[in-house]
Task: inverse folding
């Protein structure tokens, strides 16, 4: 828990981009009904990022940064999807392959990735989850139009080209 204390008291973008993306995604999903997506780091199941998505082409990733075209948000994480595949894929994705780094996931399935010890998995210590959820709700209320879909763009405080960190 000590590792996450500075995040809980710092910039919410850092909190939800450096270990708390799952908390923010669940808050968005519960408030707006957006489906969840999980970005896997590798075939062993390590999680790189959890976010919501909405729309058909262009499909938007919705996370702490607001609405970002999903293709652009995945590029932030070093993933690239060919445009011709995006055009033929319904919700912005090609047909599943043997291993696809991006998967649709339910909250219950996401919980299988929760851990109470820092390291591999999504940190879900009760104290962290409660404090992070309060911060998520405050941020969503503050920038409501950027999360509810009224303004399909990033929040004013989102740093353009922000490089993802090891957990998110």
Result:
């Amino acid at each position: 828990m000590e590792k996450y204390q500075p995040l809980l008291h710092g910039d919410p973008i850092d909190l939800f981009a450096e270990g708390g993306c799952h908390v923010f995604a669940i808050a968005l999903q519960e408030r707006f009904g957006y489906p969840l997506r999980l970005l896997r780091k590798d075939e062993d199941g390590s999680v790189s990022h959890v976010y919501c998505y909405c729309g058909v082409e262009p499909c938007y990733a919705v996370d702490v940064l607001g609405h970002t075209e999903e293709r652009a948000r995945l590029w932030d994480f070093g993933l690239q999807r060919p445009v011709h595949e995006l055009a033929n894929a319904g919700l912005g994705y090609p047909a599943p392959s043997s291993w696809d780094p991006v998967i649709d996931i339910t909250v219950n399935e996401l919980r299988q990735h929760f851990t109470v010890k820092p390291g591999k998995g999504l940190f879900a210590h009760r104290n962290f989850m409660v404090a992070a959820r309060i911060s998520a709700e405050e941020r969503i209320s503050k920038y409501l139009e950027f999360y509810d879909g009224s303004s399909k763009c990033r929040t004013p405080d989102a740093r353009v080209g922000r490089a993802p960190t090891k957990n998110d």
Summary: Strands lie at 36-40, 47-54, 60-63, 66-69, 102-105, 114-115, 122-123. The chain is about 35% helix and 15% strand. The chain has one domain: 2-147. The mean pLDDT is 82.
